[in-house]
């Protein structure tokens, strides 16, 4: 039991949560256009941090700086308490940060297993893999089934089916599963429920919850307020290139969030 002063019943101080990813006073300009104006952010283990904001508020720029698609002009990014500088998305991938963009970037002609390992194909053991570069299709399919099962994805029973034959929600599930498979530190989801129906949106939201339950922190960018308030632990609100406030679904309502986002009120 934690007491009011922060100590435990046994007298030991309560453990302090340390953020897994932080951004401190990030600045990004494009000529005279200010994309980010001193934005700071903290992401903690096992939480869903939603980022909301109107068009042009700096959401995309912030995510690009966190994932290596852009390099901030000023500020610092730390991962596990250590300063990092991502000059390209591959740097973020290598550090354990995976991003699922709105466009998904799946290959429709390839099957589910091949998409999960796209660009990271498993090679067969021995000379077949090291010399002849032969892909271990059996191994990839086995691991793909395991990843889908771990995430609770029951709508994709056959990992040999081509992605072009899947529904929008199933394609999103493949992209999220790929991010979960390789995102050992952080998974970033950019508008994951955009253009999906109610049933498929609910499936994707459940995937987000499953990721959190596995201890994987998630950054969720979304315009859909009900979805944000359903899954987010904290909500980072961007406005005019700055962080207007960081709130929780318990402390503020959807109306409050929209008012802060549009400048109608302060936090």
How do the helices and strands follow one another from N- to C-terminus? EEEHEEHEHHHHEHEHEEH
What is Rg?
20 Å
Q: Overall mean pLDDT score?
A: 88
The number of strands is 10
Q: Widest sheet: strand order?
A: 6-7-8-3-9-10
CATH homologous superfamily title of the domain at 21-96 and 183-262: P-loop containing nucleotide triphosphate hydrolases
Number of helices: 9
- Portion of residues in helices? 25-40%
CATH topology of the domain at 21-96 and 183-262: Rossmann fold
Beta-strand portion reads: 15-25%
Which stretches of 5+ consecutive residues score pLDDT under 50?
1-6
Distance between the termini: 31 Å
- Helix-and-strand structural type: alpha/beta
Q: Give the C-level CATH assignment of the domain at 21-96 and 183-262.
A: Alpha Beta
What would you call the shape? globular
Q: Report the biggest beta sheet as strand number plus sense, adding barrel if it closes.
A: 6 strands, mixed
Based on the structure given, which CATH architecture of the domain at 21-96 and 183-262 is correct?
3-Layer(aba) Sandwich
